[in-house]
């Protein structure tokens, strides 16, 4: 990964707060910056989720296409693993 902060953002997928979630759509991999008001395990009450596509690391500015290119199998694995986090 480009920096420790982005790596931690990826590992936070499904947790309360911000995370980076890779998405695999139409043979294209990209990252979403996602916010969750609650952990994915919380199933009741009002849960807010927002996400937006990002092109650059919000911490160091690295173009994420470079990260995807250098770690394609790993990013694709995470996209498949975290598919249920995308609505």
Structure description:
With 87 residues, the chain is of the alpha+beta class. The protein has one domain. It has helices at residues 4-11, 64-70, 72-81; strands at residues 17-25, 28-36, 49-54. The protein has a three-stranded antiparallel sheet. The termini are far apart.
Furnish the topology, listing elements before pairings.
Blueprint: H1 4-11, E1 17-25, E2 28-36, E3 49-54, H2 64-70, H3 72-81
The gist of it:
This protein is α+β, with helices and mostly antiparallel strands and 87 residues long. The chain contains three helices and three strands, in the order H-E-E-E-H-H. A hairpin with a 2-residue loop joins strand 1 and strand 2 (28-36).
Note the main attributes of this structure.
87 residues; alpha+beta; three-stranded antiparallel β-sheet; globular
Determine the mean pLDDT: 94
Q: Alpha-carbon distance between the termini?
A: 25 Å
The main pleated sheet reads as: 3 strands, antiparallel
> Would you report the number of β strands?
3
The neighbouring-strand order within the major sheet is 1-2-3
Strand content: 25-35%
Number of helices: 3
Unreliable residue runs: none
Percent of residues in helical segments? 25-40%
Task: Give the oligomer, counting copies of the same chain as homo and different chains as hetero.
Answer: single chain
Structural class of the secondary elements? alpha+beta
Q: If you compute it from the alpha carbons, what radius of gyration comes out, rounded to the nearest whole angstrom? A: 13 Å
